[in-house]
Amino acid sequence: MSHRATLTPQMLQYAEKFDDRGDIRWMPYLMYFHAADHRSEVVNTDRLGFRLTHGPDGATASPGGPLPEGPVRLLAGSSTAFGIGASSDRHTLPSWLWSKHAPSVPWLNFAGRSHNSTQELLLFTLYRHLLPQIDEIVLFSGFNNLGLSRLPAPIRGDSGAFFNCNDFYGQMEELRAGRRKASGGRGLFGGRRQAEPAPADTRVPELAEQIELAVELTLRHLDSWRLLAQGMGAKLTFVLQPLATWVRETPAPQERLLFDELDAISNFGEVYGDISSMAAREAYSKELRSGCEQMGVRFLDLNPVVADAIGQDDWLFVDRIHFTDDGHDLVAGLLARQLDLT
């Protein structure tokens, strides 16, 4: 049996329903979101696909399900905020915050797996109308924009690349090719179509350019978050999420087993190797912090905070980006302390 199946059996359920490309729930505007009304011992979603959050005394809440009457706090972001890696809904970051570390106001899980900053912002604008008064928004994000910034310019476009974008562009090109063939090369009004465009730029940006692209896109959307939060009277914080290789150079023993096994079946090192270094994180964090300060948004790089709070053998990650249950608990507690949440 694999180390992943032995050490993190919950990941098999995430893979079954949330990783399978054949089960992707394609959505207008967002491109994709989680399965709706999903039920299992590991992860449960409401009628819209948001994950349930657990609070004190058995309370639960979600944007598309039961909601408290009073003010709420949101944890937004992508898969780490959603809680991939947690063995149950009770062990995600928003559940630990509501049930243990900052229980004075209910927390909602407002994250979308594999979302970039464009999708994180769109998700909020599409479903904000369902929510009661919002007291606080913690945007726990940053990695996906950087990871996707290495893709060529035609794929990034004006709003950033997104996961599964090759499926989208491939299908669109097949559709265009079919229509060109059906029209016999004639345009809308019967004229001969123009020649095919020149081959697209497929250059992979250098690391410094990747960081620049990710910072610009993140801050652009964060400024929209700022305006929305300001209009609602909500406090906004951007948290640069931890990555295992941004926290420490030598993983815990269990992490080493899991990372080696995952590397044998994936191309993480090939795809993300240049951005996974401490130096890349420091450069990225510095630029994000400067941009947040200029627009008046509170910023927290959680990587050095986590590094200072753990020992060399503390097992935090099920892979390089997602936490164990203890990791979620630790990070939620650090968030509460660093952001003065009660």
UniProtKB/TrEMBL annotation:
Assigned keywords, A-Z: Hydrolase
Stretches that traverse the bilayer: none
Gene3D superfamilies with a match to the protein in the record: SGNH hydrolase
SUPFAM superfamilies, sorted: SGNH hydrolase
Record bears the keyword Chloroplast: no
Keyword Hydrolase in record: yes
GO molecular function list: hydrolase activity
Pfam families recorded: Lipase_GDSL_2 (PF13472)
Domain SGNH hydrolase-type esterase, residue spans: 77-330
Protein's UniProt name: GDSL-like Lipase/Acylhydrolase family protein
Species this chain originates from: Streptacidiphilus jiangxiensis
